[in-house]
From TrEMBL:
The lineage of its organism: Eukaryota, Fungi, Dikarya, Basidiomycota, Wallemiomycotina. GO terms for molecular function: metal ion binding. This is Diphthamide biosynthesis protein 3. It catalyses: 2 [3Fe-4S](0)-[protein] + 2 Fe(2+)-[Dph3] + NADH = 2 [4Fe-4S](1+)-[protein] + 2 [Dph3] + NAD(+) + H(+); [3Fe-4S](1+)-[protein] + Fe(2+)-[Dph3] = [3Fe-4S](0)-[protein] + Fe(3+)-[Dph3]. Component of the 2-(3-amino-3-carboxypropyl)histidine synthase complex composed of DPH1, DPH2, DPH3 and a NADH-dependent reductase, predominantly CBR1. It comes from Wallemia ichthyophaga. Residues 2-58 form the DPH-type MB domain. One of its GO terms (biological process) is protein histidyl modification to diphthamide.
């Protein structure tokens, strides 16, 4: 069960680490790497709590 579904455009992108972030209600941030998105993964996890979100994106943008 997802906490929420978020458009990739609403995430911030860390160019150095190639990671997309989105704020988590616990105070940390959900994370998903560009490589994960290229592999078709769409689940971003928070490293501090058990919440997960689904990232809505076009896989063709990551080919």
């Amino acid at each position: 069960m997802y906490y929420d579904e978020i458009e990739i455009e609403d995430c911030s992108f860390d160019e150095d680490k190639q990671v997309y972030h989105y704020p988590c209600p616990c105070g940390d941030r959900f994370e998903i790497t560009e490589d994960q998105l290229k592999e078709g993964e769409d689940i971003a996890r928070c490293p501090s709590c058990s919440l997960i979100i689904r990232i809505i994106y076009d896989p063709l943008d990551f080919e």
